[in-house]
């Protein structure tokens, strides 16, 4: 017809693209080559949105249940309101918010464009995610410092570490995390993505230009250096606490090693430090890839390759895993936590059974 490839099999028949009379047929030649093989693998065998969804949904449900139980256990059982568990319950609130935002990440994975929830929802969700991320890091850090004071300076801890001061400090941690995450409100927004795959809807209802609005880091944030500055702050939020945690647990380990294990208090300290050490280890293993991925994204100025996208998906799964796994660690390593959860569930089930029996008795009396 004057355009296109007139002989579709010229390259396959000759074994070389050089013999093709029309250069346009070069784009159709590698039908069974490496490019087609990679495409088939990515679209059929390893369907990324399906795989990630299969992982995310059970993770979210498990994490929501565990963190809600942690909050209820601490606030409904007075003997669980120690300074350590006050930190852990507040951290459970932070993890709960992170998991509640997970469906939006899934939505953007399946349908990145168009973003239908408006600019305000885009800014608030990204702000809440960053705020809770910072808040969790601060909680782990200050909880470890509190344990250091309790183990290494027990007399000072009796007067310095109180429930009232712990609650006030937790409030300050949330405020500090919110202030640190505030630049995200300027950094992200809904923008039209130019030169990429179009969205599924049109701006004017179906016949005009495709709707390519996306909730993303704005061009202004990239060009002004705000994105790079925020990535530096985010990395400092990870690296500085990481160094503090390493120093604190080294000092705690040295102190406990030199002390005798005879007293019950020392054994309790050792058990608590073991539990927190495992929590910190899980935190580092889950969050290190997440921060590496964000740094790579920042250095690439918002662009990404297939390898970076796969790495970001894996790091995101680990990020949400860290928000869901803490209650499981408490349950595995703390008999006190296990007993409190069992007591809470048993009391609830006993109350429900008693209510059913009462209602049944009233119904029988009314019937007679």
UniProtKB/TrEMBL annotation:
Q: Which GO terms describe its cellular component?
A: plasma membrane
Q: Which residues cross the membrane?
A: 55-76, 85-104, 124-145, 166-190, 232-252, 273-290, 310-330
The record places domain G-protein coupled receptors family 1 profile at: 66-330
GO BP, sorted A to Z: hormone-mediated signaling pathway
The entry lists its GO molecular-function terms as:
growth hormone secretagogue receptor activity
What InterPro entries does the record point to? GHS-R/MTLR, GPCR_Rhodpsn, GPCR_Rhodpsn_7TM
| UniProt keywords, alphabetically | Cell membrane, Disulfide bond, G-protein coupled receptor, Glycoprotein, Membrane, Receptor, Transducer, Transmembrane, Transmembrane helix
Q: Which Gene3D superfamilies does the UniProt entry name for this protein? A: Rhodopsin 7-helix transmembrane proteins (1.20.1070.10)
Cell inner membrane found in the keyword field = no
Q: Where in the cell is it found?
A: Cell membrane
Provide ranges: composition bias, Basic residues: 348-358
Region entry Disordered, spans: 348-368
Biological role: Receptor for ghrelin, coupled to G-alpha-11 proteins. Stimulates growth hormone secretion. Also binds other growth hormone releasing peptides (GHRP) (e.g. Met-enkephalin and GHRP-6) as well as non-peptide, low molecular weight secretagogues (e.g.
Which family is annotated?
Belongs to the G-protein coupled receptor 1 family.
Name of the protein in its database record: Growth hormone secretagogue receptor type 1
Q: Which organism is it from?
A: Labrus bergylta (ballan wrasse)
């Amino acid at each position: 017809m004057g355009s296109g490839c007139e002989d579709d099999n010229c390259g396959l028949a000759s074994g070389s693209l050089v013999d093709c009379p029309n250069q346009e047929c070069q784009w159709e030649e590698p039908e069974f080559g490496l490019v087609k093989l990679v495409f088939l693998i990515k679209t059929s065998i390893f369907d990324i949105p399906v795989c990630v969804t299969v992982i995310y949904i059970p993770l979210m449900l498990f994490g929501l249940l565990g963190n809600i139980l942690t909050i209820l256990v601490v606030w409904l059982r007075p003997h669980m309101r120690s300074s350590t568990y006050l930190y852990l319950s507040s951290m459970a609130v932070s993890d709960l918010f992170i998991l509640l935002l997970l469906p939006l990440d899934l939505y953007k994975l399946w349908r990145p464009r168009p973003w239908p929830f408006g600019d305000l929802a885009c800014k608030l969700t990204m702000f809440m995610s960053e705020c809770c991320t910072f808040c969790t890091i601060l909680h782990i850090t200050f909880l470890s410092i509190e344990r250091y004071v309790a183990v290494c300076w027990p007399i000072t801890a009796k007067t310095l570490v109180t429930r009232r001061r712990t609650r006030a400090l937790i409030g300050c941690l949330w405020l500090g995390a919110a202030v640190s995450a505030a630049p995200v409100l300027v950094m992200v927004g809904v923008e039209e993505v130019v030169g990429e795959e179009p969205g599924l809807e049109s701006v004017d209802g179906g016949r005009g230009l495709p709707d390519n609005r996306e909730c993303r880091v704005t061009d202004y944030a990239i060009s002004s250096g705000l994105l790079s500055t925020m990535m530096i702050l985010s990395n400092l939020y990870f690296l500085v606490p990481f160094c503090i945690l390493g120093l604190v647990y080294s000092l705690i380990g040295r102190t406990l090693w030199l002390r005798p294990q005879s007293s019950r208090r020392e054994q309790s300290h050792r058990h608590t430090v073991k539990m927190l050490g495992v929590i910190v280890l899980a935190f580092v293993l889950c969050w290190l890839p997440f921060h590496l991925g964000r740094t790579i994204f920042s250095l690439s100025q918002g662009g990404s390759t297939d390898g970076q996208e796969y790495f970001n998906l894996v790091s995101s799964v680990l990020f949400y895993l860290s928000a869901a796994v803490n209650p499981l660690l408490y349950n595995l390593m703390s008999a006190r936590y296990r007993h409190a959860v069992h007591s809470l569930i048993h009391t609830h089930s006993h109350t429900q059974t008693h209510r059913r029996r009462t209602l049944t008795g009233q119904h029988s009396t009314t019937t007679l």
